[in-house]
C-alpha cells in the first residue's frame, strides 16, 4: 500500500485499471481500491482515476 500512496501523493498515477482475466483465482479488488482512494484523496480524484482517465485513454 505504501507504493500506491507514494504514487498518488506525487501525482504519478494517471488511471487505475485491471486486466481482470481471471476473477476466480486472482480477484482484482477494484472496489476496495476505489474506496481507499475515495477515502484518502476524495471522490473527485477517485472518479477521475477510475473512470474519466480510462475513458480518455480509450477515446485517444
Helix content: 55-70%
Beta-strand percentage?
Answer: under 5%
Please state the structural category.
Answer: mainly alpha
**Arithmetic mean of pLDDT:** 87
Order of helices and strands: HHH
SS element count, helices: 3
Backbone shape: globular
Tell how many strands the DSSP assignment holds. Answer: 0
What is the end-to-end distance? 30 Å
The biggest sheet amounts to: none
Radius of gyration: 12 Å
pLDDT < 50 runs, ≥5 residues: none
What labels describe this entry?
single chain, 60 residues, mainly alpha, 0% strand
Describe the protein's architecture and organization:
The protein has 60 residues and is mainly α. Helices cover 62% and strands 0% of the residues. The protein has helices at 2-9, 30-41, 43-59. The longest helix has 17 residues, at 43-59. The relative contact order is 0.17.
